[in-house]
Amino acid sequence: MDTNALVNVKKVSSETIVNSDEIHSCKTPMEELKSIKLCDMKVPMIYKGNYLVCKVVKNPLARICTRVGIHDLNDNFAIVDLYNFRYNLDDVEWISPGTIFIIKEPCVRDVLKYELKAIDIFSPTDVIFVDPADAEFLDKIGAKKWYESMSKDAEVWKNEANEFFKDGKYEKAIFLYERAIRCNPENPILYLNKSMACLKTGAFYMAYEAAKHGLEKGGDREKALYRMGQAAYGMREWKKAADHFLEVLKEFPANEFASKELKRATSRLTEERNGKFDFKSIFVESKKEKAELDVADYKGPIEIANIPGKGRGMIATKDIKEGTLLAVSKSFASAYEQDLPVNLIPEISEQVLTPTNVKAKELYDLYSGDDNVPNDEIPFGIVDAFRIKNICRFNCFGFQDKDGQNSFYLHIPSSYFNHSCLGNAFNSFYGGNVMVIHAAADIKKGEEICFSYGSPYTAYLERKKKFEKWKFQCDCKLCETDANDKLCSKRDQMFEEFEEYVKANKNDPQKIRETYVKRSKFQLTLSRMLVSLASLHSDIGNFSTAIQYLEEALTLMDGPFKYGLNISQTCVNLALCYAPILNIQKAKEMTKKAFKYSLCTDLDHFKTLFPYLSVLI
Ligand SMILES: C[S@@+](CC[C@H](N)C(=O)[O-])C[C@H]1O[C@@H](n2cnc3c(N)ncnc32)[C@H](O)[C@@H]1O
């Protein structure tokens, strides 16, 4: 047997992993599974109905997954590849040699070169970690031989856990607080400390439960209630959070932290109930690196309905005016390109384990690609990596910041809007983390509300290809017009050449204009060229030509796609061209128009976005 396989973790792309059709997630409770040993396992095979008890014997290695060498209860060796447990793969401490764990329904394959068995784990909830000091549980799974006799003094483990906590090693601290609790289940401090450590790792459900137990065991009420409030806030249960902070203040009125937190929770409640958001502050905050914005989700006069041929979609519950705020959502999970592999499963795993299972239900209800497979109910506390991977594929939004860095976001409520290139809604992002959807037109009660999944500027064939990946065809008027227009792809090609050409010539888009002779509608490519040309001219101070191009572009943009084409920015550009030639009246007119189309809450918000226009408004 060659254990060198361990040093040979393959470099594979994240796609290779998450696309595997063999991703299996165990949905059966541990009590219903039977133990199995490596010698009884044939390869390749998924051992449904079984579990394997193992112990890490070889140091972990990490590339795209974390790989460890394990022994089973017969001391037979195998490789275990753990996917989707961590963002930060450099962190391997969580599975160091000596770690005992159970693999529920293991997927076994062979590594021919090394004549070894290998087990792939994709869903974090397929693993149960076992404390070597937990004699009772080890006995239950037939692993008594791995029992390590350790101190039974809870204080010893509490002190050790506190040290880990101080070093920022929260998971290790949680593991030891749990050991301490097994030694002395009546000590409330252990629960409260565990709760604090859980808050640090974002395991809010566990934090809430631990603080509640601490309270029930007679622990410090101020601390317990405050932590319950913090945990509820983390779970985005604003009312519950506010109630706990109020309870703290009632008994301990001098607690300044609780009064601050109560204010925050109340703001979230107002956002959630009335759609009253401070978009200016959200904008300022979103400009910070890897900003984590603190906002509630809001659902305006809209509801989910079945839309023939499109699955589910959003419809208006009453007549809606253009510019109305329809929805705000904070991303459920996010990943940054620089943190390769891009993988939302570790974060989603934390979120899925909430007490009421509401979040898990909302997540698993999202479209996962196969209309023929009913979205069967996933039991509470189960991370189904395969389903989540598909949900991400059909519902994630990519976002590129100004430095060209990509990030990926899953927004739950916003995932129910279908696409239309000429959508009657417009979605904008605050750093990607927060998605805001406004009505881009007047909408009648019962009408479907769609927004464009990309820029309407995207060339027709490119759009079509993109939609094919998402398994649909767009039947909007723009796609219909483009599909019937023989000059469409020629024009798109000309545009590409044009971009190169204008860079060199700063010339007129006459040739493109000519391609529209037979089509007066949707002259998007022309407007795009005019905007490009205008910017070249304004850069060299040729403002009157820039104005001529921008005014023409503005007329062409004024259609159902005006928000998608960022008409507000074109008005800003015009204002910035009128101002230097001292046509202040026009500059003010354009600034006013820019504000109208900016969807800003108020002038203050607008001025934060465009401070250099402040004097014109
Ligand atoms: C983000 S989901 C939108 C909600 C989805 N319709 C549902 O039932 O949950 C994206 C998926 O919706 C469907 N879809 C979106 N826009 C569509 C359109 N214009 N026509 C047909 N299907 C569309 C496609 O299946 C696409 O992959």
Structural summary, described in words:
It is a single chain. The protein has 617 residues and is α+β, with helices and mostly antiparallel strands. The protein has 4 domains: 144 residues, OB fold (Dihydrolipoamide Acetyltransferase, E2P) (Beta Barrel), CATH 2.40.50.140; 121 residues, Serine Threonine Protein Phosphatase 5, Tetratricopeptide repeat, CATH 1.25.40; 187 residues, Beta-clip-like (Beta Complex), CATH 2.170.270; 140 residues, Serine Threonine Protein Phosphatase 5, Tetratricopeptide repeat, CATH 1.25.40.10. Helix content is 41%, strand content 17%. Strands 1, 2, 3, 4, 5, 6, 7, 8 and 9 form a 9-stranded mixed β-sheet that branches. A 4-stranded antiparallel β-sheet has the order 10-13-19-18. Helix 5 packs parallel to helix 7 and helix 16 packs parallel to helix 18. The longest helix has 19 residues. The chain is globular and about 85 Å long. The N terminus is likely disordered. Bound molecules: S-adenosylmethionine (SAM). The site of S-adenosylmethionine has 17 residues, from strand 12, helix 13 and strand 17.
